[in-house]
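Thread: 6-phosphogluconic acid complex, take 2
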Amino acid sequence: MNDIGLIGLGVMGRNLVLNIEDNGYSVSVFNHTSSKTQDFVNNEGKGHNFSGFCDIEDFVNSLERPRKIILMIKPGEPVDSVIGQLLPYIEEGDLIMDCGNTHFPDTTRRMDELKENGILYLGVGVSGGESGALNGPSIMPGGSREAYGLVEDMLVKIAANTEDGRCCSYVGDGAAGHFVKMIHNGIEYGMMQAISEAYDIMRKVLKLSSEEIAKEFEMWNEGELSSYLMEISYKIMNFKDDETNKPIVDVILDKAGQKGTGKWTAQVALDLGIPAPSLSTAVESREISFFKEDRRNLSNMISKYDIEAFSDRENLLKELENALLFTNFMLFSQGIWVISEASKVYNFNIDISEVLRIWKGGCIIRAEMLDFFREILAEDNENINLLNNEKSLTFLMGKVNSIKYISNIAMDYYVPTFAFHTALDYFYSMVEENLPANLIQAQRDFFGAHTYNRIDKEGVFHTCWE
Ligand code: 6PG
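Output below.
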């Protein structure tokens, strides 16, 4: 009998089971295409504690009770289909864990459906790509405590390790794990967007070569901006294309793909009524990138005035580093605010500081700044967007002139900077007592008698405008 089963031997699934087995567990594996199972057991898995199965009933029967089955498959219909195939053979008390990037409402639905059969279910966010899966991902499990209790030891053992402990912790009730992973990805989109904008300014305003940009990114990665995404970005900038020997970024088409998690983040933020402009524009910017033909045609139809390479290079690079730090703060502020609200609305009961702790290692958004955010929350756990804190405001006000400076230069040079602008606008709006929403209220009342409140007395008012 094996300790655990895994369905789905794609890249993530294979690496995850190798990690699990390496930590002393025996694993049954099953894949929709049987040849993949054979191939895995006879190659990467050879000489290790794996048993491959081509029949799902045999797979289920090979597992120690209560059975623990990991699904590492494409989110959506395939998950329902596999659960349907498992149901005739699993029994009350068995556990299914969906470790893919499933949209959280699907997880809620499946949990409810399976509860009727007494099947335990966990929605588990797993971040770190293939190397994380193999060497230690960040793991965000959500569901019942009882379900988590069955696999806690194993998940903690296989997770990334940091000075603050293993990057796995019970995230919360229901679909909390998949929710938090979705927001992780929303922040991931924003951080990638912001770094890309910094790159764009360096190449278009300062006319730096990829090697020069790599050097700057590498230096930044040694300071406050230290993060996984910064690290891979300098490595990417240094990477040469085999065929042309050009920097590989110069031969990659500028159309960014997406699988949906960033879009869901933006949608959920809108549904919850929580502002997350930097997370949304990161998605929209990818969408715009997709319209390559239109962009090419339009760019040929206008003449952008040509500006000489910017001369004050050292200063601009310093300001750019600060602008990125400011933007990263705003990305986490918005992401954490959405999690805080969702935790209340959906009764997830999420401990945000603990989420930040398990994002410190293994995951794509791991970054030095997480310690700062945890310090802020340690002072006030109810600080839903990290802003209402003296240290936060001192940090941000120390960088605000840099991001203003960078935004202005970017506009002069026709460089789109969604991340920088939205970060600044979000901050300006949040620290502004008087927004022009009074005029919006008046307009609404003018054309639709939607009524408004007054600043000087209680009540709901309507004006006969004409
Ligand atoms: C992770 C990543 C991972 C995946 C993204 C890519 O945390 O390991 O987020 O889940 O790489 O989903 O998303 P896009 O294809 O939408 O950019």
